[in-house]
């Protein structure tokens, strides 16, 4: 298995293309996304990241190589630090909601379960779309938008399209490829399933923000 991510990326291209077509992404790119929808998203994302930070720290501790441990622990503090700063800009004086949406709950519970109960390789694959999909969407928007000077969401776009995030994403891919290179066929199948599911959950997260998803009862 030379480059596991390249293959996983190809096999999930349809999900990435579907994300690019989501109204949330199109309106974010145009700057026309209603601010209540964006607020809902930022609120849910703050709750998502509070759990994701623990997932990354646990994953780091599971890695046998200390450089990999260091990377995930740095990501847990560093990336989350940057994203919290973003939330400060966009949340402003608004109250933080305290109840996770069903999709937010599903995604964080899924990642927590993968890291707690599954192999290191599967957990790495489950966590990776959170890095790679945001990078691809950030780059896509930067490349296609025509309103950089006056898009109210530009700080968000620049965070994920920027160089700093690219370095971090690249490290996560390199680490995942390294463990995949020694994985059995059975583990590789499970890694693929985890990467696909987490990619679908990324699609669902934006969809649930756009509809301001509520609990049915
Ligand atoms: C749901 C979600 N997925 C990914 C990211 C980018 N780390 C994020 N902020 N939120």
UniProtKB/TrEMBL annotation:
Question: What are the transmembrane regions?
Answer: none
* Gene3D superfamilies documented for this protein: Heme oxygenase-like
| SUPFAM superfamilies found in the cross-reference section | Heme oxygenase-like
Q: Does the keyword NADP apply?
A: no
Give the superkingdom in one word: Bacteria
Domain Thiaminase-2/PQQC, by residue range, is 22-211
**EC top class named in words:** hydrolase
Which pathway? Cofactor biosynthesis; thiamine diphosphate biosynthesis
Is the keyword Hydrolase assigned to this protein? Answer: yes
EC number(s) per UniProt?
A: 3.5.99.2
Keywords, A to Z, come to: Hydrolase, Thiamine biosynthesis
Sorted alphabetically, which InterPro entries does this protein's record hold? Haem_Oase-like_multi-hlx (IPR016084), Thiaminase-2/PQQC (IPR004305), Thiaminase_II (IPR027574), Thiamine_Salvage_TenA (IPR050967)
A single GO BP term for this record reads:
thiamine diphosphate biosynthetic process
A GO molecular function term, named singly, is: thiaminase activity
Q: Give the function comment from the record.
A: Catalyzes an amino-pyrimidine hydrolysis reaction at the C5' of the pyrimidine moiety of thiamine compounds, a reaction that is part of a thiamine salvage pathway.
Q: Which protein family is it in?
A: Belongs to the TenA family.
- Its recorded name reads Aminopyrimidine aminohydrolase
* Organism in which the protein naturally occurs: Maribacter litoralis
